[in-house]
Amino acid sequence: MMPWLVTVGRRRADGRRLRLHVPVVPVLLVLSPLLALAVAGGVVACLVFRVSPLGALRAAGGLLWALPGTSFEIEQGRTALLLSVR
């Protein structure tokens, strides 16, 4: 299942919290020209390093499909960052 929503939460040093919900599909649509360039660059890199482009694409798809339900929490001092993928 493709991730639909990424939630980024940040707790500032003064204790206030900031939470940002980012929908994945509209961001992908806006950034699609850059995504096309990244895919082309990835294919060229695969050919240079003699890696199967289809295998690399399959691995990237598997990583993307495994993201929903993942959450990262980083805390340093009084500042904390939470990244949740749904």
Percentage beta strand: 25-35%
- Side-by-side strand order of the widest sheet: 2-1-4-3
Main beta-sheet strand count, sense and barrel state: 4 strands, antiparallel
Helix segment tally: 3
What's the total count of β strands?
A: 4
Number of domains: 1
What is the helix content?
Answer: 40-55%
Q: Low-confidence parts, pLDDT < 50 over ≥5 residues?
A: none
Shape: elongated
* Gap between N and C termini: 10 Å
* Backbone structural class: alpha+beta
Helix-strand string: EEHHHEE
What does this structure look like?
There is one protein chain. The protein has 86 residues and is of the alpha+beta class. The protein has one domain. A 4-stranded antiparallel sheet has the order 2-1-4-3. The protein is elongated and about 50 Å long. The model has no long low-confidence stretch (mean pLDDT 90). Helix content is 44%, strand content 31%. 0% of the residues are buried. A hairpin with a 2-residue loop joins strand 3 and strand 4. Keywords: Membrane, Transmembrane, Transmembrane helix.
Write the layout of secondary structure elements.
Elements: E1 5-11, E2 17-23, H1 24-30, H2 32-48, H3 53-66, E3 71-76, E4 79-85
Antiparallel strand pairs: 1-2, 1-4, 3-4
Offer a quick outline of the entry.
The chain has helices at 24-30, 32-48, 53-66; strands spanning 5-11, 17-23, 71-76, 79-85. With 86 residues, the chain is of the alpha+beta class.
Keywords:
86 residues, alpha+beta, four-stranded antiparallel sheet, 3 helices, elongated
